[in-house]
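I'll show a typical protein example:
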Amino acid sequence: MDTSDTPVVFMQNIVKRFGTVTALDGVDFTVHPREVAALVGDNGAGKSTLIKILTGVHTPTGGQIYFEGSPVQIRSPQDARALGIETVYQDLALVDLMSITRNFFLGRELVGGIGLIRFLKLRRMDEQTRTSLSDIGIEVRAPTEKVEKLSGGERQSIAIGRALHFGAKLLILDEPTSALSVGETRKVLNYTLNAKERGLSVIFITHNIHHVYMVADRYTIIRHGKLVGNYLKSELTETDIADLITGVRES
């Protein structure tokens, strides 16, 4: 973990109101280079709202976002992606009836052409898909295989590999181990660590304290839309995290 450099992301005093409801009230959130930052809290704590602000789905009512030290306004998911922010959502946004390759390059297909005739460079995309996944320890049976035949862990691996391939600086994982078996969970946690080793910063959003404790360097805990605290892994046990989330222990 490298905390000496400028943070990749610093969200300062973020406020979000929906009418008369305050979803976030002055939350700070920092992600440093090459670290896994856990964002944890109970259901309804405000985790999703905070991430939707970072990814341009919501506009903050107040506060400022800094990306690599510079103030930014993220008004859309396209703005976030242009900065190098890639999100792997819980539903993965994969198309079951398409191949691994087509999903890998979805919206970014390699296209060739002769005159007015255009065609997909499927062989090159297949090769790049296999190589890119292999580079981060993900082996696929065949890049032409349909996604519907993949397990939950394999689907996660494709989504993570896609974000890495297209040059993400910050990878956001939304409940990546939800509904996975023990073996598949272990693989996804390893992919998360591999992403960090390749130079990415990772935000790991989860309600599963045990899973995130295995990979996170830092914890930001929020409760009822307010910041409980930011902690290094060495400062907390799993029990401490659970107590802070539920309010049994105050910061």
